[in-house]
Amino acid sequence: MQKINMIKSEYLRGLVAKGMREGLRDHFSYRDIKLTNKFIPNAEGSTHVELGNTKIVVGIKMGVDSPMPDRPTEGNLQVSAELLPLASAEYEVGPPSPDAVEFARVVDRGIRAAGVVDLDSLFIEEDKVWTVFVDVYVLNFDGNLFDAATLGAVSALNNTKMPRYEDGKVIRENMTGKLKINNVVTSCTWAKIDNKLLLDPTSSEESIMDSRLTIANDKDNIRAMQKGLHGPFTAKEVEEIIDKTFEKSKNLRQIIEKTKE
Amino acid sequence: MTAPKDKPELMKNGKRHDGRSPEDLRNIKIEAFVLNNADGSAYIEWGNNKILAAIYGPKEALPKHTQDPERAVIKCRYSMAPFSGNEEHGSSRPSRRSIEISKITKEIFEHVILVEEFPGSEIDIFIEVLQSDGGTRAAGITAAAVALATAGIPMIDTPYAVSVGKVGKDLILDMDYIEDKYSDADVPMAICPRTGELSLLQMDGILSPDEFKKAFSMVKKAGDQITKLQRNALQSPYQKTMDKYSKEV
Predict the structure, then answer these.
(1) DSSP string over A74-141
(2) How much is the ipTM here?
């Protein structure tokens, strides 16, 4: 999280109190979203996400592995996230911070709970299944990594090609098959600042927020939730956020659908 | 979330596999003042969960760069003993799951502790899961709240936590390990009982907005019982003395 000076923070709070915010947005709208697929042609699937000034690359690689012992006929899904030191002055070199761990786990939870990837289709033979590696790389941090990463990951998975597995080897030439996708999930992250709720916070808004709530949902159901930071939410606020999230996610799903080949 | 295929029958004629009704908690026992060296401590047995919580501080925050000149910093470590589960030997290094639970637990107590009272200091919360049977984060948070009170740390509220799960169409309170493993949704929540606000909210699985409302009301209802147990744990060590003096007067 970025630290900002008191003058900036009071200016932002003043705007929020008046129902305004930086960038001529209202409290319930997203910044511009741009998804670019096939950004990394070497990867089996990839998407470059721009959410305002937040920039993320999601790369997908397929590997062959043993299944989890309790799910012997299902493929594996592994989501990891890197907050690269080049993305913000606050990010440091070294083992993942608790923020980075939470970030990766929340993105993973939404995708897993919504059953985005058809894991049954990834069975190869006994004790051999495909593993889908989803790597989220943050290139430039300007807030709301959760939603940007979920958009990028789902869009990349939607356009992932399948290598072949022949005679104990993974063959990546002339990939024709596609990864089977069963569902689309998106997330909406809300910041609470002085008892006001703001969708899609920027990094300066995140630095003054009291708490944060992320709702991941598909068309009809909530699939994952995560509250963050010290501030509490009333049940009424949570219900309002859930209602608004279902309304806002329609557009996000359309953006993902548009990138589908 | 697709449950593994060998799913056992979790609900039968409105009863759960251990005989509980959907809105029943497991047996909960909380004991305060259990560790001598710690500034505050509590032990909780929540069903088959056995968890210790200990508090050290307020004390000078070290290393120095972690100090905040305006408030105390809260540090929290949730950890599971390698022998605590009923499966293989666990790792003693913190898992990604433990790191996340430590972070969200810390955030709950940053809200309730009057951190402005102790600038430059740190308050350590250690939660050690000795035996686990589902719902350890909730039990750990509930115990840590009691431990903080025994350490004499001023708080605006005594939070409790419990999770609601979904099995088929039924919402069930306080899942154990088996229910958690095969459930369709898991919603851990922590509540500040004075205001009724949520200070922890997580969820994964599948849940409709209406089911969330019902889950929240189940957690609120269970709160009366859990809050009472937390209070009793804090009061009962003094009960003998109180009885003695009330007789004399």
Answers:
(1) S-EEEEEEEE-GGG-TT--SSSPPHHHHHHHHHHHHHHHHTT-B-GGGGEEETTEEEEEEEEEEEEE-
(2) 0.74
